[in-house]
């Protein structure tokens, strides 16, 4: 049998340790790019030009990445005192040559979007997910993080279908 369906592994690797890349409360996120534009009134930060976002072993490369956040005020317990402003990630959108890697798996597509409130990731545009030699392809991969469920959809182009290639482990690899 195939060692744990690798899309579930992708789900947990992508955003699985707590809330992963988007929330990043436990682990720091480092983003590097050629350009950054912060739009405080729109609660967004836009990165462009060879964007690389890292959180521990998780790395996301894209041509552009936009982080959308909500501002919330945290109470400090002192009557009449305002609290600190906190920025909670609402959603992240990456586009252009998107590549997500962690350890032995890689996911690619034209766009990737993470929805924090739904804990859902959507990878679109010739989406491909590899783990070792195993491969799943489709036009769109939707990962429901809390449900441990993934859905792969085909393109509407004639003849296009979802494809999966699974290679069982040899006895020598166990």
What's the short story on this structure?
By secondary structure, this protein is mostly beta strands. The chain is 8% helix and 56% strand.
Outline the secondary-structure elements.
Layout: H1 6-15, H2 20-23, E1 30-32, E2 35-39, E3 44-55, E4 58-74, E5 84-102, E6 105-115, E7 120-131, E8 134-144, E9 149-153, E10 163-165
Antiparallel strand pairs: 1-3, 2-3, 3-4, 4-5, 5-6, 6-7, 7-8, 8-9, 8-10
CATH superfamily of the domain at 1-71 and 87-129: Lipopolysaccharide (LPS) transport protein A like domain
The count of β-strands is 10
Helices and strands, in N-to-C order? HHEEEEEEEEEE
Number of helices: 2
Q: Label the structural class.
A: mainly beta
CATH fold-level name of the domain at 1-71 and 87-129: lipopolysaccharide transport protein A fold
CATH class type of the domain at 1-71 and 87-129: Mainly Beta
Contiguous runs where pLDDT drops below 50 for at least 5 residues: 1-25
Helix content: under 10%
Q: What is the first-to-last residue Cα distance?
A: 12 Å
> Using only CA atoms, what is the Rg?
18 Å
Average pLDDT figure: 77
For the sheet with most strands, the description reads:
10 strands, antiparallel
Strand content: over 45%
Q: Could you say what the CATH architecture of the domain at 1-71 and 87-129 is?
A: Sandwich
Approximate shape: globular
